[in-house]
Automatic annotation (TrEMBL):
The chain crosses the membrane at residues 29-47, 97-116, 201-222, 290-314. Structural component of the gap junctions. One of its GO terms (biological process) is monoatomic ion transmembrane transport. Its main location: membrane. Keywords: Cell membrane, Ion channel, Ion transport, Membrane, Transmembrane, Transmembrane helix, Transport. Residues 392-452 are annotated as: Disordered. This is Innexin. The keyword Phosphoprotein does not apply. The lineage of its organism: Eukaryota, Metazoa, Spiralia, Lophotrochozoa, Annelida. PANTHER family: INNEXIN, INNEXIN-5. InterPro entries: Innexin. Belongs to the pannexin family. The keyword Ribonucleoprotein does not apply. It is found in: Cell membrane.
Length: 452
């Protein structure tokens, strides 16, 4: 056992952060819940005694053991005590229970399908030319970095990766109908792909839809396997909980019965003897609770998935919201004026970042903090200006402020007066303007006669 634990501990595991909290609720916590239920149900089957049948008086110990094993393998059926035992040919009167032997596998299959959408996202997003998980890992390292040199290094790394991805994508844009395609892509997002700048976003939204389809499908399969009278198993549980007058009535569940019937034949001396025994299923006492919890858990996950998808759709396809989001971070990063209109970064958002760039910033914000997003957005803004990706004049931003490292514009030419100033101040020489708000020029005396 120690060797097995040592081998498992050496298996490389990597926690990914290229998603949001709702995605991790699906592919981590829900998977963990289902695996725990699978382990518990397995322990109940192989550690305890899952079924105990009341054998006839003439049965010996081996006969009783055979009866228990046979009724566990063969599907038992539930029958109310006030009903007569059906005849051998009356199969339609037997409500067979077909699931309790397969409970560990059912929970494992549920866990597998909750994990599949995350693998679809992981395997396909790397084909976009950038690994979002590497960017998110670098962003988390930037969040934890305390030294200035390390922070600057991580910030340059993130900026270079995103800029390379955005630059490679822009090189794919060719064709005479480029303007029309860009218009459709930015407004309706009906065109998808790397060249339209929305590959990562649409792939992520597809993953969200897969999570919703998986949760909805699992609810449907659960209702089919349990063969409930209602389309919603949880509704039936709540109805029974409210309607019963005695606690024992709730324990006598028709879906997870604790007492069932089992029919089997035994050949003895050439004759076939038919027996009907009553069996107790203590495993159903725990299985029912696990299924109730799993059903309401999946309903909660389905609701949160739907709300998360709606939120991402609203934020991603609303141009004003994208502008305000990026503009707010640029203001915090001191790249644009606080009172400026969000339209000053219109070109930066729609032509440089586009859907995928803004999506990466939002994803970084979900996994780090606001300061980290401010630094990355500001660094991308500076890179855009350095690469001439944003129209500028004399090194100025669209709103007239200068980025860090941009030299001031050359001084304006000296405007002299046609009149000769008094006191012989005709040897004055202008110096460089000192950032006067009115563009004034400071004069400096050059001779002793100029000093009064």
């Amino acid at each position: 056992m120690d060797k097995l634990v040592a081998i498992v501990s050496k298996v490389p595991t990597k926690v990914r952060y290229d998603d949001d909290a709702i995605d991790r609720l699906n592919n981590r916590y829900t998977v963990l819940v289902m695996v725990v239920f699978a382990v518990l149900s397995t322990m109940q089957q192989y550690v305890g005694r899952p079924i105990t049948c009341w054998a006839p008086k003439e049965f010996t110990g081996s006969h009783t053991k055979y009866t228990n094993s046979y009724c566990w393998v063969k599907n038992t059926y539930w029958l109310p005590f006030e009903h007569e035992i059906p005849k051998p040919h009356e199969h339609n009167k037997r409500g067979e229970i077909i699931y309790y032997q397969w409970m560990p596998f059912i929970f494992l299959i549920m866990a597998f399908f909750f994990y599949v959408p995350s693998q679809v996202w992981t395997s396909l997003n790397s084909k976009s030319g950038v690994d979002s998980d590497n960017i998110l890992a670098a962003a988390r390292s930037l969040l934890r970095a305390n030294q200035t040199d390390r922070r600057d290094k991580m910030l340059r790394l993130i900026t270079n990766q995103i800029n390379r991805f955005l630059g490679n994508r822009s090189q794919l844009k060719t064709g005479c109908s480029l303007a029309f395609q860009k218009c459709l892509s930015s407004t309706m997002c009906c065109l998808c792909g790397k060249r339209f700048g929305n590959y990562l976003l649409l792939l992520y939204l597809l993953t969200k839809m897969l999570y919703i389809a998986n949760a909805f499908g699992q609810l449907f399969v659960l209702n089919s396997v349990l063969r409930t009278e209602y389309n919603l198993y949880g509704y039936e549980v709540l109805r029974q909980l409210v309607s019963v007058s005695e606690p024992d009535e709730f324990l006598n569940s028709t879906i997870f019965p604790k007492v069932t019937m089992c029919d089997f034949n035994i050949r003895r001396l050439g004759n076939v003897h038919r027996y009907t025994v009553q069996c107790l299923l203590p495993i159903n006492l725990y299985t029912e609770k696990m299924f109730i919890f799993a059903w309401f858990w999946i309903v909660m996950v389905l609701f949160l998935n739907s709300a998360s998808l709606f939120q991402w759709l609203l934020r991603s396809f609303c141009g004003d919201d994208r502008l305000k989001y990026v503009h707010g971070h640029l203001v915090c990063a001191q790249r644009v004026d606080e009172g400026s209109h969000p339209a000053v970064c219109d070109h930066f958002v729609h032509e440089y970042l586009r859907h995928d760039g803004v999506f990466l910033l939002r994803l970084i914000g979900h996994n780090t903090d606001m300061i980290t997003v401010n630094d990355i957005a500001g660094s991308l803004w500076d890179r855009c200006i350095d690469d001439d990706a944003i129209p500028k004049k004399a090194g100025l931003r669209p709103n007239g402020t200068r980025p860090r490292g941009t030299p001031p514009p050359p001084p304006s030419p000296l405007k002299t007066s046609p009149k000769i100033p008094r006191h012989g101040f005709n040897h004055l020489t202008p110096t460089a303007p000192l950032d006067e708000p009115d563009g004034g020029v400071v004069y400096t005396p050059t001779t002793e006669d100029d000093i009064c």
